[in-house]
Amino acid sequence: MPGRAELQKKQEDKHVLEELLDSIKGEIKMKYDGMQLLYSGANMIDEGDNLANEMDFIKG
Predict the structure, then answer these.
(1) What are phi and psi of 2, to 5 degrees?
(2) Taking CA atoms, which of 6, 22, 32, 60 is between 20 and 30 Å from 13?
(3) Which residues contact 2 (CB under 8 A, 6 or more apart)?
(4) What is the pLDDT of residue 22?
(5) Both ends of the chain: CA-CA distance in Å?
């Protein structure tokens, strides 16, 4: 049976790992949200280009 000090150390290690995991999850979420914003911005630029091309075509 593990001693009290060993159990305490395992609890501390578990706590540190949980904090690290939460931090990593936060980083991934920020990057994922950022990628969605980039994708959305790229779509807006493409739509603007398409509109400009249509206007040039109409002008002849």
Answers:
(1) -65, 150
(2) 32
(3) 10
(4) 94
(5) 86
Q: Is 40 exposed, middle or buried (0-12, 13-18, 19+ CB in 10 A)?
A: exposed
**Report field, pTM of the whole predicted structure over 0.70:** no
Q: Which residues contact residue 10 at a Cβ distance below 8 angstroms, ignoring those fewer than 6 apart?
A: 2
Tens of pLDDT, residues 5-55: 999 999 999 999 999 999 999 999 988 888 888 888 888 999 999 899 888
Compare 59 and 12 and report the one with higher pLDDT.
12
Euclidean distance between CA atoms 41 and 30, whole angstroms = 16
Q: What is the pLDDT of residue 34?
A: 86
CA separation for the pair 33, 11 (Å, rounded): 33
